[in-house]
């Protein structure tokens, strides 16, 4: 005996074309009109509805020579069939949006020492060039961002590199120098040739543990010859508070140049100083998962961002 096409115990599934035919008849209550409405021949439509009834094991229609009526089961299942077809339509629309670049949701993670200074440029670029992109921004520290990227909670990161994280691709945007921020009457304030060695003995204020900017500043200090035993005052969770502590005379700090105007412009109790070349610097990049489905889109966004960031006091990467 020939084997059944459907495994025993496994019910057959209705097809989309069967559901479309049934819904059309339920709406028109006339086979010819229903067939015309969905562009199907009347025999094909009748066959699709009959096949659906066989598949479901339920009589959906009451057929007479003059009219078509929905059975009680047909009344109930017609509403369900419409819901299924609407969901299929939404699925197809979503797939079409996914095929189109710069549409749908993009979840961007940003570190706190970048977000206030670069997001205006990022948001303006997205608004003007990619209006169909639903950009959602999450400000978190580096470790949390990398975890979110690895587990699919985030799509793209904007942060300081190198990360040294496996499975993460970095797309450099720019390099920026660090600037020494001091109280107004500090002996290093206003200079543009500060040697790194000056960091050896300064009362240095840094961000709390977990901020990559803290680690970068400590690396710069170590390179300058600052010993591990030299005290470092950790007093602030954000750059704004850090700068206020400097203005109050509690010490000095290092700021990335992109943060300088926002954090120091309105405080006349501060002075700034630049380092002699080569000045200590950090690199900012976009980061994505290796093999990300939207790799080409993200690379295009990185290139657009490089151009948009040129007016800032940074050295834009070559791509």
TrEMBL record:
Stored InterPro entries: LysR_HTH_N (IPR000847), LysR_subst-bd (IPR005119)
PANTHER family for the chain: HYDROGEN PEROXIDE-INDUCIBLE GENES ACTIVATOR (PTHR30346:SF26), TRANSCRIPTIONAL DUAL REGULATOR HCAR-RELATED (PTHR30346)
Descriptive protein name: Probable hydrogen peroxide-inducible genes activator
Domain of life: Bacteria
Assigned keywords, A-Z: Activator, DNA-binding, Transcription, Transcription regulation
Domain HTH lysR-type: 14-71
Family: Belongs to the LysR transcriptional regulatory family.
Tagged with keyword Transcription: yes
Keyword Transcription among UniProt keywords: yes
């Amino acid at each position: 005996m020939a084997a059944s096409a459907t495994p025993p115990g496994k019910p057959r599934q209705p097809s989309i074309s069967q559901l479309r035919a049934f819904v059309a008849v339920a709406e028109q209550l006339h086979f010819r009109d229903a067939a015309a409405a969905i562009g199907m021949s009347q025999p094909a439509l009748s066959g699709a509805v009959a096949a659906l009834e066989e598949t479901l094991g339920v009589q959906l229609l009451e057929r007479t020579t003059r009219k078509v009526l929905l059975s009680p089961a047909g009344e109930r299942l017609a509403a369900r069939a419409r819901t299924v077809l609407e969901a299929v339509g939404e699925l197809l629309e979503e797939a079409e949006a996914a095929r189109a670049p710069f549409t749908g949701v993009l979840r961007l993670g940003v570190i706190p020492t970048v977000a206030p200074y670069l997001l205006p440029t990022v948001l303006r670029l997205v608004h003007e060039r990619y209006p169909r992109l639903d950009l959602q921004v999450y400000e978190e520290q580096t470790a949390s961002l990398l975890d979110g990227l690895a587990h699919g909670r985030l799509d793209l990161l904007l942060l300081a590199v190198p990360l040294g994280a496996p499975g993460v691709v970095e797309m450099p945007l720019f390099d920026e120098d660090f600037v020494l921020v001091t109280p107004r009457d500090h002996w290093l304030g206003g200079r543009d040739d500060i040697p790194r060695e000056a960091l050896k003995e300064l009362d240095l204020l840094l961000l709390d543990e977990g901020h990559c900017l803290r680690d970068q500043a400590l690396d710069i200090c170590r390179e300058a010859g600052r010993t591990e035993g030299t005290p470092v005052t950790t007093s602030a969770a954000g750059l704004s508070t850090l700068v206020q502590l400097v203005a109050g005379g509690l010490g000095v700090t290092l700021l990335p140049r992109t943060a300088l105007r926002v954090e120091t412009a309105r405080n006349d109790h501060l002075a700034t100083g630049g380092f002699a070349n080569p000045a200590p610097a950090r690199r900012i990049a976009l980061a994505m998962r290796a093999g990300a489905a939207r790799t080409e889109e993200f690379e295009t966004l990185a290139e657009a961002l490089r151009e948009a960031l040129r007016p800032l006091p940074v050295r834009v990467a070559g791509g």
